[in-house]
Amino acid sequence: MLAKRKILLCVSGGIAVYKAVALVSKLSQAGAEVKVIMTESARQFVQPLTFQVMSRNDVFYDTFDEKDSSVIAHIDLADWADLIIVAPATANVIGKLANGIGDDMVTTTLLAATAPIWIAPAMNVHMYNHPAVKRNIAQLHDDGIRFIEPSEGFLACGYVGKGRLEEPEKITELVTGFLSREQLLKGKKVVVTAGPTRERIDPVRFLTNFSSGKMGYAMAEAAAELGAETILISGPVSLPVPSGVKRISVESAEEMFQAVKAEFETSDFVIKTAAVADYRPKTLHDRKMKKQEGDSSIELERTTDILQYLGSEKSSQVLIGFAAETNDVSHYAKSKLERKNADYIIANDVTEAQAGFESDTNRVTVYGKQEFEKAFELLPKQELARELLKLIAEREMRNDR
Ligand code: PMT
After folding, report:
1. Which amino acids bring their CB within 6 angstroms of ligand 1?
2. Rounded to the nearest whole angstrom, what is the distance from the C-alpha of residue 198 to the centroid of ligand 1?
3. Ligand 1 pocket test: which of 272, 351, 388 has the largest number of ligand atoms within 8 Å of its C-beta?
């Protein structure tokens, strides 16, 4: 299943290095060509010879030991790989990569890499939960690095908890699934917006809506899985960044507009899943508004309709909007398709149970130009997102965009 795929395994120093040996074996059995780089600490646990024998390739561990004078080893290895796995990944190697430090063969290669990187951490449970380690992992998530979460169980240090390197079989299964997925959007840039916006009234209050970001994050995840360079412009939600996705966090409709505008020209697909506020308070009070006797009102002004703006500016970009409707779904969706000059509108009836805002599932109908219409059954948002992206990517490839 991994025939002819080139996998670079970066091994850093922890007791789980022994599992990395089994990982080389599993990857090789699946048909991959594997090369191994070790940190100095990894060499304290297992000799390079073990990895050399298992991979049938030279093992690299010294940045200055250039085995082939016609190339620079860490650049050459970074360019060679279809996919890079860091396993086990220590807090140290995670911290260095998150902060752009390249001071050995593993970290210089990782910094030079453009291939997808998968990190499989393994460490003591308290180390894994340390705020600095969590910060570094969050940073790498934001940089588009994929993580294979450690599993729970007995740790070599005597603790029981989360920190065990995931089993080699499972890592092999994950990367096999990733590499064998049709990379329909390889070489394409996809911008996804997700979540709600917040329109501030005063320092303690804002207008918003019920969007959880689940649908938009699922769309971004699906785009990354199909090989796209994926930018997720997200309103305030509490979801982790999907693997392989770069997140830009925004708060208001205006901030979302500016962020989308900055990415628009270089993008191939823009997917507007966000529930953007149509109105914001006309006045932003710099002090908390005090309650008074009797009723009160807030004057609102229109925000920019981002989708409509993009529709008027687009050249070759494929523009995909969502429509959250409570009635006459088909009528309103078709009218948005027309008015906003979108290529597709994905409509959901947000009054339906298990669909629309906040739920883990959704039911949508896609409307496109030339009367295109396709209804989907109720599906988990992640599965639905994959189906939607596949449908649109295949249709657009046929249109030879
Ligand atoms: O986040 P979840 O909890 O998973 O919920 C998912 C969802 C219900 C939010 C999602 O499936 C959805 O329907 N998103 C669109 C919500 C929406 O704002 O619909 P709309 O019909 O008001 O807007 C139509 C389109 O115009 C949308 O693509 C919207 O992003 C865009 N728009 C709207 C207003 C505005 N000022 N600028 C915009 O770009």
Report:
1. 211-216, 253, 272-276, 278, 303, 305-307, 321-324, 336, 348, 350, 356-358
2. 14
3. 272
Handedness of CA 305, 306, 307, 309 (dihedral sign): positive
| Distance from residue 324's CA to the centre of ligand 1 (Å) | 6
211 shares a domain with 309 = yes
* 206 and 173 belong to one structural domain: no
SS3 151: strand
Q: Specify the pTM.
A: 0.73
- The CA-atom distances, in angstroms, between 151 and each of 101, 128, 168, 262, 306 are 27, 11, 12, 39, 42
Shared domain check, 77 and 144: yes
Range list of H helices, 86-213: 91-98, 105-112, 125-128, 131-142, 168-180
Instruction: Give distance in angstroms: CA of 272 to centre of ligand 1.
Output: 7
Question: How many Å apart are CA 288 and CA 97, to the nearest integer?
Answer: 42
Does residue 10 carry a catalytic annotation? Answer: no
Among 212, 255, 307, which is best to mutate for testing ligand 1, by the most ligand atoms less than 8 A from CB?
Answer: 307
Same domain? For 276 and 196 the reply is: yes
Compute, in angstroms, the gap from residue 307 CA to the centroid of ligand 1. 10
Same domain for 204 and 321, yes or no, is yes
Distance from C-alpha of 366 to C-alpha of 395, rounded to nearest angstrom: 12
Alpha carbons 345 and 338: distance in angstroms, whole number: 10
pLDDT of residue 33: 97
Angle formed by the axes of helices 73-80 and 105-112, nearest 10°: 50
What is the domain range of residue 315? Answer: 189-400
Predicted pLDDT at 400: 53
Residues lower than pLDDT 50 in the chain: 401
**14, exposed or middle or buried, with CB in 10 Å at 0-12, 13-18, 19+?**
buried
